[in-house]
Amino acid sequence: MQFHDSLITLVGNTPLVRLRNVTAGIQATVLAKVEYFNPGGSVKDRIALRMIEAAEQSGELQPGGTIIEPTSGNTGVGLAIVAQQKGYKCIFVCPDKVSTDKINVLRAYGAEVVVCPSAVDPEHPDSYYNVSDRLVAETPGSWKPDQYSNPNNPRSHYETTGPELWEQTEGKITHFVAGVGTGGTITGTGRYLKEISNGAVKVIGTDPEGSVYSGGSGRPYLVEGVGEDFWPSAYDAEVTDEIVAVSDKDTFQMTRRLAKEEGLLVGGSCGMAVVGALEVAKRLGPDDVVVVLLPDSGRGYLSKIFNDEWMADYGFLEDTSSSPQVSAVL
Length: 330
Ligand code: PMP
Description:
Keywords: CBS domain, Lyase, Pyridoxal phosphate. It is a single chain. This protein has ten helices and ten strands. It is an alpha/beta fold. The strands form two sheets. The chain has a six-stranded mixed sheet. It has a four-stranded parallel sheet with strand order 5-4-3-6, sandwiched between helices. Helix 1 (44-58) packs across helix 2 (74-86) and helix 1 (44-58) packs across helix 5 (152-168). The chain is globular, with a radius of gyration of 19 Å. The chain starts with 15 loop residues before the first strand and ends with a helix.
């Protein structure tokens, strides 16, 4: 019989899919690493597993313990699945800009979710960073993975995502592109690819306009899961050769194109990363192989990015083929 004894062994080993249509006019091969094939539906299953197993080994997480983490959703799902398999409780703290779809998913896995205002400074007592610290102090047997500073976040990508890409491309990858949130994906994957290729692979980060990685002040943007208003220690700026800043409008329009033109129903940070990847690929030739990592599925964003009314309210529908079609139908 062929079966998995636990969802845990299904984490990682996600496929590469060539982008065939949004790449019109581009000579380089552009491949997407589609992370929604992970059991929790996102790239974050990788770090959840690695962080929990490391905490078990170090004794920071004891049997029956409670995992408490500020998360925009995907890390929560990964942690919730691994915790469920291993018998831990979970409490997640989210900013209020996170879609209700994502929050309901966390609650479905049996986790407790505390929602905090996103319009306050990180130092404010109600910020989601501070609320989670307070909960950890008040809850006996609790452990906070802290994906922003946990070395097992980048390490999981150094040990899995990086080697997978090198093997899947038979060492032909020339450029790696990923969105930067905690910085774990780009730091771990990028470091591995640079080491194995003796520095030949170029590593390009993408972040929302206004975020610190591309020189902004942390001003708000709507794309979820990427961009920061501080520099987390999970991110090593030495690994990235370049950061491409992308507007919300370009991000969300590309996200919709990926569903329509490539059959990839993915999240907003995926659209952002693809805008960056195409920006880079435009300058390259036929021997170049660009891999862009797509962190999650579009299912968690149906009421936002894939909702014409929401897109129109922000002026994001202009200049796309979908708006005239919609008014014709109405
Ligand atoms: N996209 C989404 C949807 C995410 O949840 C995250 C994680 N915050 C990222 C991209 C960025 O990945 P990383 O934290 O590894 O930089």
